[in-house]
Amino acid sequence: MHRSTWALLLVAGALLSAGLACGFVDDIRSVVETVDEAVKLLQELNDNSAWERVSDSLDTLARQNDGYAATLRLQDGPGDTAGVGFAGAPARDVIVSMQVDGANNALAQLQTGGGVHNYYVQARGTDARNGAVYRVENGQFFCVSDSEEARLLRQGLSGFFDEFGLEAKGVQMLAVARQVEDQAVIAGRTARHFALESKIPEALDILKKFNNAELKTKIEQAGTFTLTGDLYTDEATGALLKLESVYHNTDHQQRVIMTFEVVQWGGIAPIAAPAPEAIVQPCP
Length: 284
What we know:
Elements: H1 3-21, H2 28-48, H3 50-63, E1 68-77, E2 92-100, E3 106-112, E4 115-124, E5 127-137, E6 140-143, H4 148-164, H5 166-173, E7 175-186, E8 189-198, H6 200-208, H7 213-222, E9 225-234, E10 240-249, E11 254-265, E12 279-281
Parallel strand pairs: 6-12
Antiparallel strand pairs: 1-2, 1-11, 2-3, 3-4, 4-5, 5-6, 7-8, 8-9, 9-10, 10-11
């Protein structure tokens, strides 16, 4: 049996057990209907998962052999009560500019409140996720493979979600990507456009039907939040070209904006490894 089918059956069974344990024995039909709603929701998430589409398209981008240049920006801070902006300046504003060659070696510039830093990411194997990372200062290279910055640079968009926008990533996993019938060109490439649609309201409606105090408390603690965004993938290859995602929690006054865009497709010259005499602190 397909793994996703097993997952649906297990969750359905868990929901049914929770319903019976919460005093729904005299109304099994309503529990079964609720389980059916949950299964349908999980199937929709399985078929059109926004996060899976983002992850798959990122992997496809890493596998293409033409190289690319991209910019990623993450803003995180208190959100306003209207749900439309930040309450003042974001607490964190991180901008990463990258040039990646066909072998996935990369030059990156990281801009934060602490200044601007340059890095060289050396791919090992099929991508850069296990590669050495050097900070570049005045033409000299210092190994920083064990640093926070290195982890983020190697893991790309997923790493930034993990580090700065965990809530946004969690909400993204309960979202679907629905194709929009329009024309878009990004970095000279014809793109498919997908709108991000949160399924959190449906999930919460299902959970509310269970007379479970713990679930009710968790729903209340989650607060009121929204997720909006757009995703663009290359029509020819499926590679990620652009992502815009906005998470806003009015109850907890938190807002996370993430944008990623390929600004150049192809034409990236091979990025050479640093000369041995330029390496002040080598990576193992």
